[in-house]
Design brief:
Layout (H helix, E strand, L loop, with lengths): L6 H7 L6 E4 L3 E5 L9 E5 L11 H9 L1 H12 L3 E5 L15 E6 L19 H13 L4
Antiparallel strand pairs: 1-2, 2-3, 3-5, 4-5
The structure holds guanosine-5'-monophosphate and zinc ion.
């Protein structure tokens, strides 16, 4: 369950202090030390799983089930205009702690400290190519 060298397992255990936002049997939520924006929260499963690929459905269900109410708590506390919910998987995607976590980043405007960039490449993809890409992924989704 707990991984010895994992900083988030240590936080769950109380070996490293954290600013707790929410806790139940399966989930722990606490403030991200970087506070990209005010109220930036991490939601983690108490079971150590490295990333989304290693996550059993039940762990994912229990984790995501708590996201709406924690998000609403942040909204009620600080009245952000919006919230970004994301999880980085793999170093290239920005993952630096290898215990699954969901970032809740409340948004207070476009210059609030969080700057996602979404390039559009829709002109490069015909409907036919999109169908072929979707088919490729669909065939590799295993239950
Ligand atoms: P990642 O980069 O893996 O998506 O997110 C890891 C997050 O964990 C980072 O945003 C980082 O600020 C946060 N973090 C790393 N170490 C600690 C810590 O000891 N305490 C808290 N509260 N957050 C941490
Ligand atoms: Zn862990």
């Amino acid at each position: 369950m707990i991984h010895e060298d994992c900083i988030f397992c240590k936080i769950i255990n109380g070996d490293i202090p954290s600013a707790k936002v929410y806790e139940d049997n399966d989930v722990y939520a606490f403030l991200d030390i970087s506070q990209v924006t005010k109220g930036h929260t991490l939601v983690i499963p108490k079971t150590h799983v490295k990333d989304i690929y290693q996550t059993p459905e039940e762990v994912a269900s229990n984790l995501f089930a708590q996201i709406p109410k924690i998000s609403k708590g942040i909204k009620e506390a600080f009245q952000p205009e919006g919230i970004n919910i994301l999880s980085n998987t793999g170093e290239v995607a920005g993952q630096s702690v290898f215990h699954l976590h969901i970032h809740l980043i409340p948004r207070y405007g476009k210059e609030d400290g969080f700057k996602p960039t979404w390039e559009t490449h829709s002109e490069d993809y015909t409907q036919e190519v999109l169908q072929s890409i979707a088919k490729n992924i669909h065939e590799k989704i295993h239950n």
